[in-house]
Amino acid sequence: MRVVILGAGPAGLAAAQAASAQGAEVVLLDEGERVGGQFWRHHDTLTDSGLHHRWRAFERLRGALDRVSVHTSASVWRVERDDGIRLHAVVGEADDTARQALLVEADALVIATGAHDRVLPVPGWTLPGVTTAGAAQALAMRDGVVLSRRTVVAGAGPFLLPVARSIARAGGAVAEVLEAVRPAALVRGWGRAPWRLAGVAPKAVELGVYAASLARHGTRFTPGHAVTRIHGTGGVEAVTVQRLDTQWRPVAGAERTVECDGVALGYGFTPRLEAALQAGCALTADRFVEVDTRQATSVPGVYAAGEVTGIGGADLALAEGAVAGFAAAGGGLADPRIRGPLAARARMRAFAVRLRTHEIRPGWTDWLDDDTIVCRCESVPRSRIDAYAHASPRGLRLASRVGLGACQGRTCGPAVEALLERELGFDRRPVLSSVRIGELAALRPSSAPVRAANPDPAPNPEEQQ
User: Can you give the pLDDT at residue 447?
Assistant: First the structure.
């Protein structure tokens, strides 16, 4: 039995290890240069393992890949379900003119494509020195460099804390960490039914590490505030910080200026649904892939794990990935080998529920001026989006150019949909990733790799916990 896994982050790696343990032939595809995904971004020689949560778990999972056919720098541009499961990809660096076509046929598919940073537009966010929180952390974790000399980290969610720590550990200064959720809402959200968090005590230790880092570097943490304007000419020079009400509307007269030369923005994450949608998977009401207790989707033979099924962090992704890989390879949930991941999944879902405390409130749109750029790729301001608000999704794109740039709406799509209060289908694409016309015209796909040569039994899936 062949199981193909799309994505080599925590969920994908755990799925690969578990499917291999069940005896399946496993093919792992990832668009990154190295396995590890967004969570374990690393450089073979520069990475500081102290910046990575659960680094030993990554090393164990990576060590099990000698039994798996791994393709990195593999851009999957098409998922077909007409007659079996087929994934079309091109393998090679994005700017390589000689990428190789690859066709993988499988009996089961595990979609573990993860999520990407969600950023809310703000006046001045196109200035040099502004980036996503995830990009700022990636620079520190993978390359050991910092975005700027003095950075403001702003947004919503626990992810802001490890970002600030990464910047400080890499030698940068964090001027302030701004959390948009107000203190009372934080207490209500995280303090509700605290006994349900008893099984995730390590998360409290992790929080203590981040808090100690902020204290050690004298970094101020301010809830209920946001960056509502970024100032500068050739780059970032300062930001306006304002207090927010419960719906994230700026409170008049409650603003101040913070000098800085960098801004890292992060308002949670948006699941990467393109492959799941192309495979025909049903979504939940809040637009995540719908799965059952086996992590099976609505499409026979297709499973999903990690952030595409709900934002819950790497520990939940590891557990879901192990369950998905084991089930995709024919394993049953009554098997004692999967007992550990099932228990971990239940514990971490109790933690994931608390993340809803940081969900985006609608008042953020009051930060924007008419000329605030919403679509960075095509320099589309809010006023142009408003002008075509009642057009069809296709008409809106063609008339305003929103979502037609290099990122194809991955960055601006959620913000545009929030502004117009309707879905526009930015994540429904006939071609999932950028492919040259010449590559399509010259396709002569090779067959999928054969079974990995190492016949030794893979470790128990429970070992990844």
Answer: 47
Cβ-in-10-Å burial (0-12, 13-18, 19+) of 113 comes to buried
| Angle value at C-alpha 69, between 65 and 74, nearest 5 degrees | 110
Average pLDDT per consecutive 10 residues, the chain (465 residues; last block may be shorter): 95 96 95 87 72 81 91 93 90 86 94 94 96 92 88 96 92 96 93 72 80 91 97 96 96 94 95 95 95 97 97 93 97 94 92 91 95 95 95 93 89 93 87 85 58 42 52
* Count of positions (residues) in the chain: 465
Q: Indicate if 119-267 has the same CATH topology as 2-116+269-354+445-464.
A: yes
pLDDT at 458: 46
Strands 74-80 and 69-71: unpaired
The CATH number given to 119-267 is: 3.50.50.60
pLDDT value of position 450: 40
CATH no. of 2-116+269-354+445-464: 3.50.50.60
Residues sharing a CB contact under 8 Å with residue 198, sequence separation 6 or more, in sequence order: none
Return the domain boundaries, the chain: 2-116+269-354+445-464, 119-267, 362-420
On the CB side of 405, how many CA atoms lie within 13 Å of its CA?
A: 16
Alpha helix positions (H), 302-377 = 314-328, 339-354
- CA within 13 Å, CB half, 59: 7
Residue with tokens 């992704």: 317
Round to whole Å and give the CA distance between 178 and 187.
16
